[in-house]
TrEMBL record:
Protein name as it appears in the record: Ribonucleoside-diphosphate reductase beta chain
Cited Pfam families: Ribonuc_red_sm
Sequence intervals crossing the membrane: none
Record-level GO BP terms: deoxyribonucleotide biosynthetic process
An annotated Gene Ontology molecular function: oxidoreductase activity
Matches recorded under NCBIfam families: PRK08326.1-3
Top-rank taxon, per record: Bacteria
Species of provenance: Thermoflavimicrobium dichotomicum
Cofactor(s) for this UniProt protein: Fe cation
Length: 284
């Protein structure tokens, strides 16, 4: 897996604008039905368990913190996702978005298993992720928009897609996959986690591909373009904080491995997403 993986994935997977949104949604729905059939319970974690036991204490602490971030995030997005489906404006769009709901629960299941079978403990409580916490408010706004007119529904969907597909999945999660690769995968460590990330990234390719394509279309309207850009700018400091906060597990602080380079990876991914949506280089 290379550092360029996300770039390549986005290039290939932002579906073309020559098809209608409903055609694209239906294609992605069919892809999810045919190819999104991996089973989180079937991934072999025996080598991961051995690798974890032989890691030094600092890396053990870092991995527990890292996996807590993923489990919290996958679970939170799964639990909050229904309004995104309900705001889909056709059967095709809702069909596709419903596959995303199930997939987020599969990702959650994998990390629940990882804690139980590899890390042998519960996740850490209280790891802050402000962008995730803001999903509560977002979901409420989206539900309220269901009762309003088409313009309000569209505006709520634009904000929801920016927040979830554009920022949480498109920037935060994708940075996490690269961090795994740099710290563990490139050293041949934790192959079960690597296999899960390969599968998760295929699912995320559909989620992010659909979301970014929608945002690219919506950004043609100046009022939506303005709102998308404002949300990205509002959330950038919150996503950067994630990699600046100390790694504390059970009251003890662990160093962040030098390969993580979180700020740098996040900033690059952030710029890439803006380019995907607005088509030009944008300075942060
Ligand atoms: Fe996910
Ligand atoms: Fe996703």
């Amino acid at each position: 897996m290379s550092e360029n993986w996300n770039q390549n994935m986005t290039d290939e997977l932002i579906p073309g604008l020559d098809k209608t949104t409903d055609e694209v949604a239906w294609d992605l729905y069919r892809k999810a039905i045919r190819f999104g059939t991996w089973d989180p319970a079937a991934i072999d974690l025996s080598q991961d368990k051995k690798d974890f036991e032989s890691l030094d204490e600092d890396l053990k602490g870092y991995l527990i913190h890292f996996c807590t971030g993923f489990l919290d995030a996958e679970e939170n997005v799964a639990l909050k996702f229904c309004p995104w489906i309900m705001l889909g404006s056709s059967t095709e769009q809702q069909a596709f978005l419903s596959t995303q709901l199930l997939e987020e629960f599969k990702h959650t299941e994998f990390f629940m298993r990882y804690f139980k079978e590899v890390l042998g403990r519960e996740r850490i409580s209280g790891v802050k992720n402000i962008v995730q916490q803001k999903l509560d408010e977002r979901a409420k706004k989206m539900l309220a928009a269901l009762e309003q007119g088409p313009e309000e529904r569209e505006a709520a969907l634009v904000e929801g897609l920016t927040h979830y597909q554009g920022i949480i999945e498109g920037v935060q999660a994708m940075t996490g996959y690269d961090v795994y690769e740099a710290v563990f995968g490139s050293k041949g460590l934790l192959p079960g986690l690597g296999e899960a990330f390969t599968r998760i990234k295929q699912d995320e390719g559909r989620h992010v591909g659909f979301g970014l394509r929608m945002l690219k279309l919506f950004a043609r309207k100046p009022e939506h373009a303005k709102r998308i850009r404002e949300l990205y700018d509002e959330y950038l400091p919150h996503i950067l904080i994630r990699y600046d906060q100390p790694v504390i597990v059970d009251g003890q602080e662990y160093p962040t491995p030098p390969e993580v380079r979180g700020r740098e990876r996040l900033t690059k991914m952030f710029e890439r997403r803006l380019k995907d949506i607005f088509g030009t280089s944008v300075t942060v």
